[in-house]
Amino acid sequence: MAGRFITFEGGEGVGKSTQVKLLAQALEQSGASVITTREPGGTRGAEAIRTLLLDPEGEGWTPEAEVLLFAAARSDHVERVIRPALQAGKWVLCDRFVDSTRAYQGGEGSVSDADVLTLHRIGSKGLLPDLTILLEAADRDTADRLRARDGDNSDRIGGRDQSFHHAVAQRFASIAQSEPERFVRVDGSGTPEEVHERVLAAVRGRLGPIG
Which end of the chain has fewer CB atoms at under 10 Å, N or C? Predict the structure, then answer.
């Protein structure tokens, strides 16, 4: 039996990593076999690309170069980790996937959403999650969380100005609105436990009981 693929999306500081861990714990307690992973990353090669992309001391990349690097990292990740796990019947929980590239790079420079999806079709055979949870929170809340998490040590993308991150949040909302069959938008405000309960309700509502 094939596994389930759930991705967590959203801007910086909305709590994706925390919610991935909490959902993994809940699934494992129900008896599911679960792997957690992230993008860019998940394999040795993809982690190397992550370093190139996010190094705050790096020279930086054009939006076009960023899209190509993300697509390459994702292709390796899908081929070596995600597809094999799904074929083995495992639940795969991923912190970011192709929708992050659509939101962060797909509205920048000359790169279009269609360009991002074309590269995804070529590199990852168009794999999409069974469910994408979009965590959303007010700009002031995410800014406070980022200061608490990173201080002055944000990565190259996370450290961009607030207007950039606001635009990213708007693009995420637009993508979710256009694909309601795959997305659930979850309020990311409140305690991690409160958000987790909303995530659980979203998963059960779309994929059925988890135990």
Answer: N
Q: Which CATH number characterizes residue 130's domain?
A: 3.40.50.300
> pLDDT per residue over 143-159, tens digit each?
555 555 555 565 556 65
Instruction: Please name the helix (run of DSSP H) or strand (run of DSSP E) that holds residue 151, with its range, or none.
Output: none
CA-based nearest residue to 156, from 17, 36, 46, 40: 40
| Cα within 13 Å of Cα(61), Cβ side | 19
Q: What is the pTM of this model?
A: 0.90
Give the chain's domain count: 1
Q: Which residues contact 208 (CB under 8 A, 6 or more apart)?
A: none
Q: Please report whether residue 129 resides in a domain.
A: yes
Whether residue 41 contacts residue 73, with contact meaning beta carbons closer than 8 Å, is answered with yes
In a domain, 18, yes or no: yes
Nearest to 7 by CA among 171, 178, 202: 202
